[in-house]
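pasting for ref
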Amino acid sequence: MPLEFHDQQHLRAAHGYIDLGMYVDANDELEKSTPEVRHVPEVLATRLLIYQGTARWEAMEAIATTVVD
């Protein structure tokens, strides 16, 4: 499923925050995306990076399991 422009913008912004180590801001940016795209692989992969950066291991495991399945 291709992301709409505004969702791509939120994803890019989230990656920018991740690069700066600003994981809470990255998560907030992803939350602004359309709910229907939150299951898209690129969004889930970004969420994994956020959870890794914030040491939310159980949440990271749940997302990783979803991605693998």
